[in-house]
Amino acid sequence: MKFLVTMNMPARSGGPVHQIICDYPANNLAGFCEALESHDFLIVEEFYRNMEMGPTNDSYYSVGLTALNHRYVGKVKELGSFTSANKSRRND
């Protein structure tokens, strides 16, 4: 399952946080959190957004394996058709 992970560490662009899109063999968000809690580092497959298809396209390509340190994870969301950084917030 793909996840959008917000890391509490500087981004290459100089921002205070950066986001990682990754795939991990968990069935849901709770399973991913359990794996994070159980390991200092979690090996995930990292993906970049395919910007050639346009900024609103949800196409991704793999950039290989990455080790995530649970101490720097600030927020995690399941990445799906309902999750996109380019969509406006829901009005509940």
Order of helices and strands: EEHEEE
Write down how many β-strands occur, each being a DSSP E stretch of 2 or more residues: 5
> Main sheet, how many strands, which sense, barrel?
5 strands, antiparallel
Straight-line distance between termini: 27 Å
The share of residues in helices is 10-25%
Beta-strand residue fraction = 35-45%
Supply the helix-strand structural class.
mainly beta
Summed up, the domain count is 1
Can you tell me the overall shape? globular
Look at the structure and give the mean pLDDT: 83
Give me the side-by-side strand order of the main sheet.
Answer: 4-3-2-1-5
**Cα-atom Rg, whole angstroms?**
13 Å
Helical stretch tally = 1
Contiguous runs where pLDDT drops below 50 for at least 5 residues: 85-92
Please tell me about this protein's structure.
The protein has 92 residues and is mainly beta. The chain has one domain (2-78). Helices cover 11% and strands 40% of the residues. The protein is built from one helix and five strands; from the N terminus they run E-E-H-E-E-E. Strands 4-3-2-1-5 form a five-stranded antiparallel beta sheet, with helices on one face. The longest helix has 10 residues, at 29-38. 9% of the residues are buried.
